[in-house]
Amino acid sequence: FHNDCCECLEICPKDAFFFDRKRLSIDFEKCTNCSVCLGVCPTEALSLEFFDPNDYIVRQSGDEVLLSCKKDIPCLSAFDSEHFGALLLRKAKVACDLSHCEGCELNPENKTLNSIKSRIDEANRFVAELGIEKSIDEERFEDSRRGFFKAIFGAAKEVAREERLSDLKSAVSRVPVKLTLLKNSVKADTDLPNKRITTDFSFIANKSIDTSCTNCGDCVQFCPTSALFFAKEGTAIWFISGKCIDCSICNDICKPRSIHDKEEIDIISWAFDRGEELIEHTLKICQECKTPFPYRGELICDRCKSFVEDFGDIFKLASEE
Predict the structure, then answer these.
(1) Which of 173, 243, 284, 291 supports an S-S bond with 295, CB 3.0-4.6 Å?
(2) How confident is the model at residue 244 (pLDDT cuts 50, 70, 90)?
(3) pLDDT tens-digit map of 21-30
(4) CA–CA dist 151, 149 (Å, integer)
(5) Cβ of 11: how many Cβ atoms within 10 Å?
(6) How far apart are alpha carbons 293 and 109 in whole angstroms?
(7) Which pLDDT score, from 0 to 100, does residue 306 have?
């Protein structure tokens, strides 16, 4: 099971991405390492050797930051909403230079520019939802040393960094580093005006599970970041909203449709990765198949009950012959 994300295919200005036997592949003859795809990937599955947006964020000094492709980054599309939000929470002033997007070869039909603006707007909405009166402004960076910085990027490709934030990624629990950056930025503000906000953001989700849950475990098994997990010897399902990337795989894979999205979230619990019990089951042994099942007053599990309802007449006819 997987979701149908194709953000990188849709935004790539060189059409370098394609599917080969159901696997996402890159045509390196077409790829120019422009970084346009980096910021749209929700799981940080894509990376560049010579530019890491997470490293860039934490290494910014001073209270004011101006992001520009004519300064020290390949393209503003390398940043996602979480990056913009983290900068906005950490700095007194954040500005973006979008004046060079018009006519750029990386911006066919303004597709890249519109995507960047959408991410900036989402970051502004998130910070405003927290009750903080700050937003990212547009400002032009005047400098003609683009070739100089391009040379730096070219040389950096050959250099292995001693310390990379991407090393924080775990092969088991792939929580995007950009999400950790944003949560750390929220935690650093000890006096947030609003502690409870909406979940109307691409990087935030809150879940609930109703009593139709059969405790099958599919949601836990297929959660890519272990935001959902078993507790109490497998009788309870817990949820850590701070690890959820809102991929909705759990919603789609749940056969009885027991998982639902909640419209609000406690931002402090989200930032500090606090867990919440969504449901706890009392397990009984099914009288038919002798396996444990969530007890709701019946003597047999849902699977056996369904089997009896569908095929009970066959066994009845056989016994009468």
Answers:
(1) 284
(2) very high
(3) 888 899 999 9
(4) 5
(5) 20
(6) 55
(7) 80
Domain-wise residue ranges, the chain = 7-188, 209-280, 283-320
CA angle centred on 171, ends 199 and 53, rounded to 5°: 60
Q: Which of 49, 11, 8 is nearest to 25 (CA)?
A: 8
User: Rounded distance, CA 83 to CA 253, Å?
Assistant: 30
Give, in order, the Cα–Cα distances in Å from 102 to each of 71, 84, 114, 146, 149.
17, 21, 11, 17, 21
Residue 277: in which H helix or E strand, if any? strand 275-280
- 235 vs 213: CA distance, rounded Å: 11
Q: What is the pLDDT of residue 95?
A: 97
- Count CA atoms closer than 13 A to 100's CA, side-chain side: 19
- The C-alpha atoms of residue 219 and residue 233 are separated, in whole angstroms, by 16
Rg of the chain, C-alpha, whole Å:
24
Q: Which residues contact 318 (CB under 8 A, 6 or more apart)?
A: none
CA–CA gap between residue 8 and residue 280 (Å, rounded): 39
- Record: fold of 209-280: Alpha-Beta Plaits (3.30.70)
What is the model's pTM? 0.83
Contact (CB, 8 A) for 123 and 136 = yes
Tell me the helices (H) and strands (E) count for the chain, helix number first. Answer: 10, 14
Within 10 Å of residue 10's Cβ, how many Cβ atoms? 12
Buried b (16+ CB within 10 A) or exposed e, 86-99: bbbbbbebbbbbbe
Helix axes 111-129 and 81-90, enclosed angle (nearest 10): 50
Instruction: Please tell me the distance from the alpha carbon of residue 65 to that of residue 63, in angstroms, as a whole number.
Output: 7
Predicted pLDDT of residue 265:
97
Tell me the two tokens of residue 154.
Answer: 């070219």
